[in-house]
Design goal:
Largest sheet: 9 strands, mixed
Distance between the termini: 69 Å
Radius of gyration: 23 Å
Mean pLDDT: 91
Structural class: alpha/beta
CATH superfamily: HUPs
Number of helices: 6
Order of helices and strands: EEEHEHEHEHEEEEHEH
Number of strands: 11
Strand content: 15-25%
Length: about 260
């Protein structure tokens, strides 16, 4: 079983103040911490579990700048066999289609039975790259996978649908799955494994190896902006009688009585 996992290094913005930079096309990242995209950690863990169960090789791929090599080495420390960094600095502005096209050119000659990606990236939330990559490679795919297994040389994927429904797909390999968070419990890399991974060779691919001809963006980022502040909740204070009086006045003012 030969597996490829596509991972991404993203800023951690859940509890940070996000500010737009002067170009209005990116955020200020100086004080942000970076880590592997959350859904990708689950995709990587699922790939490692498959490798442990069925054997084979596991290759991790990331389209990013040199800092992404740290993320790739963490993947190696967790159990990946090979790692490839595609030099994002060699390519101009990226959208979902262009990213998938570049990834396709990088892995098309890498032997694979299954490709795992996260269901979405937390920095852009496009949820496009995995699906487009599968279409470009001409292989079947399943998205938002919450359970997956192999039986009789068929991939059995369970997808999360609206309303709590699940869909069961039987898929012929090779195939691609975008993995939903919560499908497993991602492991931590040991300190010894991290030290060993630091010495492993990374394969670096750039525009010299990936011809940029016909690799174009189909969308253009015009501007990032913080949404304008709309109406806010008003907290009423005072005694119960005072709050009741204030509330009655607001209701009358709004013409609701």
């Amino acid at each position: 079983m030969d597996i490829i996992v596509c991972i991404k290094r993203v800023p951690q913005t859940a509890e940070a103040e996000v500010k737009i930079d002067s170009s209005k096309k990116d955020i200020i990242k100086d004080r942000l911490t970076f880590d592997m995209n959350e859904a990708d950690t689950y995709a990587l863990e699922e790939a490692i579990l498959f490798k442990e169960k069925f054997g084979g090789t596991l290759t991790v791929v990331s389209l990013g700048r040199v800092e992404a090599e740290d993320t790739l080495r963490i993947a190696l420390a967790k159990g990946a066999d090979h790692a490839i960094r595609i030099k994002a600095e060699d390519f101009e502005e990226l959208d979902g289609y262009k990213t998938a096209t570049i990834m396709k050119e990088a892995i098309k000659d890498v032997k694979h039975d299954i490709i795992f990606t996260g269901c979405m990236a937390t920095d852009d939330v496009y949820s496009q790259v995995g699906v487009i990559l599968a279409e470009l490679l001409g292989i079947p795919h399943a998205t938002l996978v919450t359970k997956i297994d192999m039986e009789n040389d068929k991939l059995h994927a369970y997808r999360e649908l609206e309303g709590g429904l699940l869909e069961h797909l039987e898929i012929t390999l090779p195939a691609l799955c975008t993995i939903q968070t919560g499908i497993n419990e991602p492991r931590y890399a040991s300190l010894l494994a991290i030290r060993r991974a630091a010495k492993k060779e990374l394969k670096i691919l750039g525009s010299a190896e990936i011809v940029a001809e016909n690799i174009i963006s189909h969308s253009v980022l015009d501007e990032l902006y913080v949404p304008p502040v709309g109406k806010r909740a008003e907290m009423l204070t005072g005694s119960m009688d005072e709050i009741t009086t204030k509330l009655g006045g607001i209701v009358k003012e709004k013409g609701l009585l």
